[in-house]
Specification:
The complex is a heterotrimer of chains A (270), B (221) and C (256). By secondary structure, chain A is mainly alpha-helical. In chain A, 76% of the residues lie in helices and 0% in strands. Chain A has one domain (2-30, 57-268): MetI-like fold. Chain B has 221 residues and is an alpha/beta fold. In chain B, 32% of the residues lie in helices and 21% in strands. Chain B is globular and about 50 Å long. Chain C has a single domain, classed as P-loop containing nucleotide triphosphate hydrolases (Rossmann fold, 3-Layer(aba) Sandwich). Chain C has helices at residues 49-57, 106-116, 124-130, 147-159, 177-190, 204-207, 241-249; strands spanning 2-15, 19-33, 38-42, 64-72, 75-76, 90-93, 165-169, 196-201, 213-218, 221-227. A six-stranded mixed β-sheet of chain C has the order 6-7-8-3-9-10, sandwiched between helices. In chain C, strands 2-1-4-5 form a four-stranded antiparallel β-sheet, covered by helices on one side. In chain C, a hairpin with a 3-residue loop joins strand 1 (2-15) and strand 2. Chain C starts with a strand and ends in a 7-residue tail after the last helix. Classes of the chains: A mainly alpha (270), B alpha/beta (221), C alpha/beta (256). The interface between B and C is medium-sized, with 27 and 28 residues.
């Protein structure tokens, strides 16, 4: 099996896992939300593979709901963040002064502590789902913006772009046919690799109590609830949601690195 | 007529200064000089890729257009860099105009190359592609900057034979920049030998061979 | 000294999106370089001559696969084996000035190179004098060097450990005739007594006066080995058809 085929397999497997989570969460319906006080805090069994929580809710269903929620939050936050990165990088292309402003803002954002910025933003916007999405989006764009700016500068200075101008091609043609196809893979890979960050930060924020509402079945809420029971030996409440989150994040990492393997010319030949 | 008038590039220590040249349609002129004397920069100035500090470049008494196809096309020493690595040869060749199959045959490009990517062709093959791409827009002049410097002698000879035939047929003026005197004397009707960059600092002295030759060329045309 | 027997090299590339194919880049090369010899390897771009140099030095990309054998003084070279041969007994003089550290002065780089080959106190001035540069060059950064000077510094670095075999990759490209002469004379000096030089170039006319033998590569195949003194007049003394064609194609000859 060559490098490209195995990269495709990895992409397929990761996508399958992600889709499976979404489908399973939809099929589970309200199982994870409904309380069942007859079965409070039961250990993993055939009926409840991940055990149940203090209100007797099935942890498997709750974890699936939590992951599905994380996926949506992550998708929105990462898309928004990539959009900001792209716009900032494009601003850099407008001219010397625009570039200096854009670079300054990027550097200023990078000089602030990541987590503190997240907490402040989310808190200032009053918490909740939309606040988390915005906070993650606003705090995550600078790194990708830097990468895109460098790539943009490189392709703008490329000899084949100069040749294209000399052949009489318009700026629009060059932007569309030479520059965009060069940037697109970087944007896609950047988005895929930003996804796990967004999901982890969402969970982290929620765990600390600055994120999603406690009423929602979010992984962060589950983990923070589990804190009260873990000393009493109810290990399943923390282990399974945490493990599921890890697997999902790893799936996205695999998706990102396998796509990069296929899309970037230097790695694509092996 | 391609005319360069008193071109200077650079400020305190100019790369070259007060350089003038006339190139007639269909004429093949050589420019010889040691490396590092600004021959490449001069070629780029003549084709409008680089702005001179002073002086002007005129084609048929008009300045070079800033938009649209440049009538003076620059041919790169390393054509691989001048092609989008994500494009196939067919798309590269048709960036300006549809394929001219007669011209393609004349310059020796084979049909099967069209489906390949630039890095899958050899240096000599790529240089042919680069020339055909420039020719598609009907240029009046070509600046050939060391275009065969990294080719083996056989590919070099074949490429120049093809280029000379086409230049003659289409009345294209060619400025051949090279460090190889033997090559220049073979392909050019006249060779400018005096190009040594800084030595033009205070204008050309009367006993320099270049300016006299140049004035003659301009006067006769 | 250096023997290539049935040496082939392929690179993985992709035909279409998923089908990986092995593209042959060097095919069935057989060649021996003797002590005291200067061998020129001639070929156009894409002939595989730089790949050959990198094969001998063991500097191949990940997607390369080798067949056959390269042996140095009777020992087969493979991977890092035998230790210390590459870089000491075999040295490479690279093509580009980019191989010098832009942030270090020439003198420091000479001392570092000396330490790498096991010499503790190297005198940069003496090394520079060997390649015809003044000792003031030791205080310059690479960006202040002209093309010819940089090439000579690369040469000084390559010959520091007195390698038995020096491989020079396009040593004369972009140099004017005076600098070219100097570099080639230095290479000729290397190929004396029990030492040898392998010069990789596309410029046949430049190396002819100094080479002992000329090896011609075309699309990864060896298409002729000739004695350098056979290249004269109409080329009647040349054995292979390719060599005659090459000789005839030079601008100073038939150019056809």
């Amino acid at each position: 099996m060559n490098g490209r085929v195995s990269a495709l397999y990895r992409i397929g497997l990761a996508l399958l896992l992600i889709v499976a989570v979404l489908v399973a969460a939809a099929l589970a319906g309200d199982v994870g939300v409904r309380a069942d006080f007859m079965n409070r805090l039961s250990a993993p069994s055939w009926l409840h593979p991940f055990g149940t929580d203090q209100m007797g809710r099935d942890m498997l269903a709750r974890s699936l709901h939590g992951l599905a929620l994380s996926l949506w939050v992550g998708l929105l936050a990462a898309s928004l963040s990539v959009l900001i990165s792209t716009l900032v990088a494009l601003t850099s292309a407008l001219g010397e002064r625009a570039d200096r402003v854009a670079t300054f803002i990027t550097d200023a954002m990078l000089s602030m502590p990541h987590l503190m910025l997240l907490i402040l933003l989310s808190f200032a916007m009053g918490g909740g789902t939309s606040a988390v999405i915005l906070a993650v989006a606003i705090s995550h764009w600078p790194r990708l913006a830097r990468v895109l700016r460098v790539e943009l500068r490189e392709v703008q200075a490329a000899t084949y772009v100069e040749a294209s101008y000399a052949l009489g091609k318009s700026r629009l043609f060059i932007a569309w046919s030479h520059i965009l196809p060069h940037l697109a893979p970087h944007i896609l890979v950047g988005a895929l690799l930003m996804f796990p960050h967004a999901i982890l930060h969402e969970a982290g924020l929620t765990f600390l109590g600055f994120g999603l509402e406690p009423s929602r079945p979010a992984i962060g809420v589950m983990l923070s609830d589990s804190m009260r029971h873990i000393s009493a030996g109810r290990w399943w409440l923390a282990l399974f949601p945490g493990l599921m989150l890890m697997v999902l994040v790893l799936a996205f990492e695999a998706l990102g690195s396998a796509s990069r393997r296929l899309l970037t010319p230097r790695e694509a030949q092996c | 007529m391609l005319q360069a008038n008193h071109l200077t590039v650079g400020y305190e220590r100019p790369l070259f200064s007060e350089f003038s040249l006339c190139l007639a349609p269909g004429e093949c002129v050589g420019l010889y000089g040691p490396s590092g004397t600004g021959k490449t920069t001069l070629g780029r100035v003549l084709s409008g890729l680089h702005k001179p500090t002073a002086g002007s470049v005129l084609v048929n008494a008009k300045p070079l257009p800033k938009k649209g196809f440049r009538p003076v096309q620059y041919l790169y020493q390393n054509p691989l860099q001048a092609m989008n690595p994500r494009w196939r040869i067919e798309r590269i060749l048709t960036e300006v105009a549809p394929l001219d199959h007669d011209l393609m045959q004349m310059i020796g490009i084979e049909q099967e190359w069209l489906k390949r990517f630039p890095h899958e062709l050899s240096g000599g093959q790529l240089q042919r592609v680069s020339i055909l791409r420039a020719l598609a827009g009907r240029p009046e002049y070509l600046i050939a900057d060391e275009i065969t410097a990294s080719l083996d002698p056989i590919s070099q000879a074949k490429l120049w034979q093809a280029l000379q035939r086409i230049a003659k047929q289409q009345q294209i003026g060619v400025l051949v920049i090279s460090h190889d005197q033997a090559l220049l004397s073979k392909v050019c009707s006249r060779v400018l030998n005096g190009f040594e960059g800084n030595s033009f600092d205070h204008g050309a002295s009367p006993d320099e061979p270049v300016p006299t030759e140049l004035t003659q060329a301009c006067a006769s045309a | 000294m250096l023997t290539l027997s049935n040496y082939s090299l392929t690179l993985h590339t992709y035909a279409g999106f998923l089908r990986r194919v092995e593209t042959p880049r060097l095919s069935e090369l057989n060649l021996t370089v003797h002590p005291g010899e200067l061998v020129a390897i001639i070929g156009g771009s894409g002939a595989g001559k730089s790949l050959l140099a990198h094969s001998i030095m063991g500097l191949l990309p990940n997607n390369a696969k080798q067949y056959g054998q390269i042996a140095f003084k009777g020992h087969a070279l493979s991977g890092a084996y035998p230790a210390g041969v590459r870089g000491r007994q075999i040295a490479l003089m690279p093509q580009e000035i980019g191989h010098l550290d832009p942030l270090a002065k020439v003198g420091a780089q000479i001392r570092w190179a000396g330490r790498r080959v096991g010499l503790t106190d190297v005198d940069p001035a003496a090394c520079l004098a060997q390649v015809g540069l003044s000792k003031a060059v030791a205080d310059l950064y690479p960006s202040a060097l002209s093309g010819g000077m940089a090439r000579r510094v690369l040469m000084a670095l390559a010959v520091l450990g007195k390698p038995d075999l020096l491989i020079a990759d396009e040593p004369t490209v972009g140099l004017d005739s005076a600098n070219r002469e100097q570099i080639l004379q230095l290479l000729r000096g290397q190929a004396q007594a029990q030492r040898a030089a392998l010069v990789i170039t596309h410029d046949l006319s430049a190396v002819l006066p100094l080479a002992d033998r000329v090896v011609m590569l075309d699309e990864g195949r060896l298409v002729g080995v000739e004695h350098a003194h056979a290249f004269l007049e109409e080329g009647e003394g040349l054995q292979s058809h390719h060599a005659r064609a090459l000789w005839q194609a030079l601008p100073q000859n038939g150019f056809c």
